[in-house]
Amino acid sequence: MKKTIYLLLMVLFVGFTACSDLNEEILDEQNGSAIVEDPENVEMLVAPAYAFLRDLQSRGAGWLAQETCTDEVAFPTRGANWNSADYRTLFTHDYTASNSYIKNTWNSYLIGFARCNVALYYMGKLPESDEVKLYKAEVRFIRALSMYQINDCFGQMPYREYTNYDYAADPEYYTRSQIVEKMISELNEIIPQLKEKGSVPYGRITRVAAQMLLAKIYLNYQVYTGTAPAFTDGTTKWAEAIAACDAIINSGKYALADDFWKLYLADNASYMNATETILPIVYDPAIGIGGIPWINMTLDYNQAFGTYSTSNLWNGCCTTPTFYATWDQTDPRFSDNRLKSLTGFNLGFLVGQQYNKSGVALVTKDGGRPLIFTPEFSVANSLEEQGVRVVKYAPNPSTTYPGASENDYNYYRLADAYLIRAEAKFRNGDVTGALADINTLRAKRGVSTYVSGELTLDKILNERGYEFYWENSRRNDLIRFNKYCAARYEKATETPAYKILFPVPLTAYDADKNIKQNPGYPAFQ
């Protein structure tokens, strides 16, 4: 099933990790041109663009920066461990242009954009076969996705069209509104060119993935442009978001999963492909490509199991009491015990006394106290056991690859189409239609449905939290619901509105003196 996407990943992996005992082959310009201009090598050209998708959930960049600034994720300092101002200032919204994770996020998304431009440039030299046309459309989607993330986080970007290969020349500098209109135009062009699910291998970009990105742009249009959400012809952006979701839901290619947790198991690819996953990000330890170390960075040192040892577990991130308190703990998405006999812990939220797989109560590594996870913590100085832990992506209990996850990542799912459509309908005055969409999802997840008159915007936000926690959705959602800046646990004061956008990192100015800092932050000098 993963054959084609594995080939794309493997091309890049081999290129970046060549063994030292291989003979180095120097290609002259003529031979190099022959390679990149050979249609047989088109997959080699698109491999770096596809590899960028893995950066979208990077612990060193986008995922960490965008989740840690919300109420969903915190990395408390625990004695000498996790003692970094960059973690703490993200959480408290005291971040500056020198924050390393903000720098990494900026770099990651711009590198993704540049990889796509390089691929498009060289594919432009190939004969226009159907295969080349399709790969061009797929790479243009990935480029639009990188632009979406840059825009969402920073609200500006240095822009260079792929046909402009003179990197000595200054780029254009796109504003937020310009980025939005460029993305909308690009997606509308490529949607008819992309294939439906089943017509391309698992892991490749599909038409519905592009429709999902378009729906997200329309849903956030008012945030991104600062204007009323309407086209000049009077068509609302809410209606456009609804239409994009209609196309996704009515495509008949996807179905809400009967088993929520099977979407997150280590061997989740087949189930993802058979149910609701619209855009999977593929991982495979067999070829040395693993995902974010979900288990390592949240479990306590003494929760070792299988081939995991105390040195593999880092006792790091947790969620906040405020996010934890939003839950009805009977919701199946809150907790699941299917792996508990093999690991000692449940999936979902880990709170209270922790045990090993034999049922023996665990103690802390520091001081031998009962290992009781508590909702409360101090971001500046926590005990080992403080903070509710989260295991969303399940470990493989028999893994021989404990350094990173083996799970494919659910970047877009059908559930999001229902929730985007519900929110757009609600904001557009169709409360009955919104209620139907929310209840469709809740019924499938096995939780009670809402009755007429019960649905509110806060409940819609909560539903997004229940469905997409730790999936890099929370920052975007809190901003749209006007809650990002509010005071919260361990952030006692309201955040100034200008910090909705991250600062452009200092290193960007070091590389390009023409770039301007976002308003509110100290200007570059």
Describe this structure as you would to a colleague.
The structure is a single chain. With 525 residues, this protein is mainly α. It folds into three domains: 1-16 and 34-193 and 504-525, Serine Threonine Protein Phosphatase 5, Tetratricopeptide repeat, CATH 1.25.40; 203-286 and 412-484, Tetratricopeptide repeat domain (Serine Threonine Protein Phosphatase 5, Tetratricopeptide repeat, Alpha Horseshoe), CATH 1.25.40.10; 293-403, no CATH class. Helices cover 41% and strands 6% of the residues. The chain has helices spanning 3-16, 29-36, 42-52, 62-68, 85-92, 100-123, 130-154, 176-190, 207-219, 221-225, 237-249, 269-274, 294-298, 321-325, 340-343, 414-427, 431-445, 457-468, 474-480, 506-511; strands spanning 157-159, 172-174, 277-281, 335-336, 347-350, 352-353, 372-373, 389-391, 409-413. Strands 4-5-8 form a three-stranded antiparallel sheet. It has a two-stranded antiparallel sheet with strand order 1-2. The longest helix has 25 residues, at 130-154. The chain is globular and about 65 Å long. The termini are far apart. The relative contact order is 0.13. Residues 1-30 have low confidence and may be disordered.
SSE diagram, text form:
Blueprint: H1 3-16, H2 29-36, H3 42-52, H4 62-68, H5 85-92, H6 100-123, H7 130-154, E1 157-159, E2 172-174, H8 176-190, H9 207-219, H10 221-225, H11 237-249, H12 269-274, E3 277-281, H13 294-298, H14 321-325, E4 335-336, H15 340-343, E5 347-350, E6 352-353, E7 372-373, E8 389-391, E9 409-413, H16 414-427, H17 431-445, H18 457-468, H19 474-480, H20 506-511
